[in-house]
Automatic annotation (TrEMBL):
Domain Type II secretion system protein GspF: 66-188, 268-390
Its membrane topology: Multi-pass membrane protein
Listed GO biological process terms: protein secretion by the type II secretion system
The name this protein goes by in its record: Type II secretion system protein GspF domain-containing protein
Family note: Belongs to the GSP F family.
Gene3D superfamilies from the UniProt entry: Type II secretion system (T2SS), domain F
Main location: membrane
Domain of life from the UniProt record: Bacteria
Segments crossing the lipid bilayer: 164-187, 207-233, 371-392
Species for this entry: Candidatus Collierbacteria bacterium RIFOXYA2_FULL_46_10
UniProt keyword list: Cell inner membrane, Cell membrane, Membrane, Transmembrane, Transmembrane helix
Gene Ontology CC: plasma membrane
């Protein structure tokens, strides 16, 4: 069966839209006419695919909005199938196909968690585990509301992080573009005059001329080399050894390493708090988090922690034995275990790391301005020494 998206008008003139299943477009049109609808638009709905199709992935914002709307509808007492049918025509076209498949699975007797599990690229293991816990406990609306809150906080945190880094990234890209234009178009013309004079040039000038000639004459090789190095690094990143080495390196960077650590800890503590509050067993929650934390160092550490907790050790003690976790994490977890409010404590720890990371990013953005000015000054000074000084020496010789 094929799926067709339609827009049609009823006898009363009301606009209706949705998705209809049929063997062909002609059959779909007959079905709609049988419902006394005047077809405005009718086309086949495809999932998309292919190597160069980058628009077939569901965006994070789409998942956030879908979760919030679904939690609101379920909380209002709307049946799950009706809620999904309504959302099916309100989400993005890419997500419509997935929601249609989820709805079809549920109508066939599947649970929502099992239906979502088939779309792991869109719905993470944490998402599926929370939905499964909500269905098992009969509190799906409550769990979806908490999940929507958590996803919205993640979206807000990511937006703040990206916003703080926009300025330095744009400036650095601008500097690279200006340097490329200088090396390819400007410097070769300026250095031609040196060829008319049979004089010995300074070593700095020779280096600049050699680099300019390389970039201007073999720029395609330079670009190919950069792309090849990036591809090789990405391929190495997919191996266990490469991922571990790169993640360790990122954690050890002077300023960016601290930001990376705090953002990772915020993600870890907030996600673990959400799973624990939903009633997921602690060991299972840790193993779910380790697969979605997005850092190999953290993944390996949590794998050890999960094994120790399964043997009966306290979570705080197991976390303290891993160097990747700052001391505040096991200390606060110990308080949560003693008071029986582990989820609340983890949520507070997540808030602490989010605030600290925001401050660190803002400080980095402020510090980037003088750093960029120093780099620009060094670049201008290098050009003065390499180009202007030889010209001055040549003019002084006459």
């Amino acid at each position: 069966m094929q799926r067709f998206r339609f827009r049609a008008r009823s006898k009363e003139g009301l606009l209706r839209k949705g998705i209809v299943e049929a063997q062909s477009v002609a059959t779909a049109a007959e079905v709609l006419r049988g419902q006394n609808l005047v077809i405005v638009e009718l086309h086949e709905l495809k999932a998309g695919g292919g190597l160069f199709n980058f628009g077939n992935k569901v965006k994070f914002d789409d998942v956030v909005n879908f979760t919030r709307q679904l939690s609101t509808m379920i909380g209002a007492g709307l049946p799950l199938t009706d809620a999904l049918s309504i959302l099916q025509v309100q989400v993005s076209p890419v997500m419509q196909v997935q929601i249609a498949e989820v709805l079809k699975s549920i109508e066939g007797g599947s649970t929502l968690a099992n239906a979502l599990r088939a779309h792991k690229d869109t719905f993470s293991p944490v998402y599926v585990a929370l939905v499964a816990a909500g269905e098992a406990a009969g509190v799906l609306d409550t769990v979806l509301a908490r999940l929507a809150d958590n996803l919205e906080k993640q979206r807000e945190f990511r937006a703040k992080t990206k916003g703080a880094l926009i300025y330095p990234v744009v400036v650095l890209i601008g500097m690279m573009l200006v340097a490329g234009v200088m090396m390819i178009f400007v410097l070769p013309k300026m250095t031609l005059m040196y060829q008319d004079f049979n004089v010995e040039l300074p070593a700095v000038t020779k280096i600049l001329i050699g680099a300019s000639n390389l970039v201007s004459r073999a720029w395609y090789l330079v670009i190919a080399g950069i792309m090849g190095a990036g591809y090789a690094l990405q391929a190495w990143r997919k191996t266990k050894l490469g991922a571990l080495a790169i993640d360790k390196f990122l954690f050890k960077l002077p300023i960016f390493g601290k930001i990376k650590m705090m953002t990772t800890m915020a993600e870890f503590t907030r996600t673990l708090a959400l799973l624990v509050s939903a009633g997921v067993a602690l060991v299972e929650a840790i193993r779910i988090v380790k697969d979605v934390v997005g850092n190999t160092v953290m993944h390996n550490a949590l794998e050890v922690v999960a094994g120790e907790v399964e043997k009966g050790n306290a979570l705080a003690v197991s976390l303290a034995r891993q160097e990747v976790f700052p001391m505040i994490v096991p200390q606060m977890v110990s308080v949560g275990e003693q008071t029986g409010k582990l989820d609340e404590i983890l949520t507070r720890v997540a808030g602490y790391f989010e605030v600290e990371s925001e401050h660190a990013i803002k400080n980095l953005s402020s510090a980037m301005e003088p750093i960029i000015m120093v780099i620009l000054g060094l670049g201008v000074g290098f050009l003065v020494i390499a180009i202007v000084v030889p010209i001055y020496n040549l003019t002084s010789a006459f």
